[in-house]
Amino acid sequence: MSKIIVLGAGMVGSAMAIDLSKKHSVTVADMNETRLKQLKSKCDVLSVMPLDVCNAEQLQSALSSFDLVICAVPGFLGFQTLKHIIEAGKNVVDISFFPENALELDAFAKEKGVTAVVDCGVAPGMGNIILGYHNQTMSITDFECLVGGLPKVKKWPFCYKAPFSPVDVIEEYTRPARYVENGNIITRDALTDCEYIEFEKAGTLESFNSDGLRSILFTMPHIKNMKEKTLRYPGHVEYIKVLKESGFFSKNKININGTDISPLDMTSKILFNEWKLGETEAEMTIMRISITGKNTKGQTEKIVYNLYDEYCPDTQTSSMARTTGYTATAVASLILEGGLTAKGVFPPELLENNAKCFQYVLKYLEERNIHYIKSSSIL
User: Which tens digits make up the pLDDT trace of 185-224?
Assistant: First the structure.
């Protein structure tokens, strides 16, 4: 039985810890002791540990006895936390989705003999694994990822709930979006190029540019057209644009009655309750991955993977926590079983033994009732 530490007791971190505790000894660390107590009451086989990941010395000391680290801290803490984990010489699977380039730590991870898999969620994450698998057998020209997590019940005005911090969501709405068109990286504002797209079970959704391609912008330069777009209910983008253009997402402090306040901090505080996903609230994850290119027969083939997943009432686990977290726990299990041994920092599209990893993760997810439905057509 391996010893695993999960950094972050949020909704996704908790789901990963509970999943891994079925076969391993798992400790969850977080600075929020109330959250740790709630998690412990939900799954008493877990151990819990109060921990501030910003304290590098305390963090590295805490990691010393563990075989593997799962990093599920907020994005703004992610890069430095990952660096400290590598410094401690520990293999790690990371879902913190920080804005910095994780590949900058590749040489450091090799030096420390560490296997670090980053961006290992649903998107980025499973979409990258699918792309990496087909990249071995196709000459790909086009890649598109459409993805979103949404509540089943629409609550005006935003019709949105999140299993993670509003700060991370707002960061997605403010960071410039990059995509690839005719081999060139194009940068546009997030929330642009809105389109309405029909999905079989979710109905009509609104897609918009977001900066979700991340590592594949650089690891897959041969793919001439690549785009990732976020999905929300129609109308969401307009409300977000109003906040954004009015300065509610600004980090520049303003003085109100003698107190300096960051508009972003205030907005995040207000939206925390507005966007907070209830523990047992019904929600869903929708993703469509489209890959086009020449197959081994020289034919132009389009392959599409559709994911539709809902909150699981049996385990009381949100769909976003399931689809994000279980991709990471699948890869963690693969590392612990010796299926991933290469050292360095790896985005999911570059995992060694692509075909084996792809099949392993698909099977792992299917065992947890998460299904990617594949279809293909010759163009």
Answer: 999 999 999 999 999 999 999 999 999 999 999 999 999 9
- What is the Cα 46 distance to its own chain's centre? 23
Architecture of domain 3-121+320-370: 3-Layer(aba) Sandwich (3.40)
Domain ranges (residues) in the chain = 3-121+320-370, 126-310
In angstroms, the Cα distances linking 305 to 122, 140, 246, 377 are 13, 15, 38, 12
What residue type is assigned to position 218 of the chain?
A: F
Q: Are 147 and 123 in contact (CB under 8 A)?
A: yes
Both structure tokens of 134: 């087909």
pTM for the structure as a whole: 0.92
Confidence of residue 276 (pLDDT cuts 50, 70, 90): confident
In one-letter notation, the amino acid at residue 338 is G
- In this model, does residue 129 exceed pLDDT 90? yes
Instruction: Check the CA dihedral 257-261-264-266 and report its sign.
Output: negative
CA terminus-to-terminus distance, the chain: 49
- Reduced 3-state DSSP string for 211-255: CCCCCHHHHCCCCCEEEEEEEECCCHHHHHHHHHHCCCCCCCCEE
Q: Helices marked H in 100-163 — which ranges?
A: 106-112, 126-135
**Contact in structure between 153 and 140 (CB atoms under 8 Å):** no
pLDDT in tens, 282-326: 999 999 999 999 999 999 999 999 999 999 999 889 999 999 999
Q: What is the CATH number of domain 126-310?
A: 3.30.360.10
